[in-house]
Amino acid sequence: MLEPDRAGGGGRVVGLAADGTHRFSKRPVERLRLLEGLGVEGDAHAGRTVQHLSRVRRDPTQPNLRQVHLIHTELFKELESLGFHVKHGDLGENVATGGVDLLALPRGTRLRLGAEAVVEITGLRNPCAQIDRFRSGLMHAVLDRDAAGGLVRKAGVMAVVLRGGEVAAGDPIAVELPAEPHQKLEPV
Fold first, then answer.
1. pLDDT digit string (tens) for 108-123?
2. CATH code of 120's domain
3. 181: in domain
4. Structural domain count of the chain
5. Does residue 78 sit in helix, strand or coil?
6. Strand, helix or coil at 4?
7. pLDDT at residue 129 in the model
8. Which portions of this protein are annotated as coiled-coil regions (predicted)?
9. For residue 95, what are the CA distances in angstroms to 51, 52, 107, 150, 164?
10. Confidence band (pLDDT; 50, 70, 90) for 5?
């Protein structure tokens, strides 16, 4: 059973974006349809195998662990405080969330987005140089160091679609943690 996120009192879908063309930013939309095993309907990154262009060049047969990109809107607020104006879709995310600490979730966490759709988190988005081409200095702003000096990637998480369905802004997000032991998120 999927439970509302207890830490934040339940999360919400704040914004949605998709784009059928491979470019850094995505266009904001009112609704998305998630397709089981594929990703976001009409999005350039939808598919059973990798769609990210640099990964396709390396090995086009790899499974697509990056079907849906989710970012917590709390990052947008943090970036705003550093002088970067970033809105939904600008960083290439499909789903902007509020009230769920995405980066603290373990690999394999399932998120119900709205009434039907379920995605499973596969790992962290690994920010690349395109972020600095979008806004100079932004790459540094989405990377940090933890107390032990380890690199912290804050540019969101990637997921695969386990159950399709329509998602709209304002929809609730329910969180189901995987069985322990939990595996920390790594870049995918």
1. 999 999 999 999 999 9
2. 2.40.33.20
3. no
4. 1
5. helix
6. strand
7. 86
8. none
9. 18, 17, 18, 27, 14
10. very low
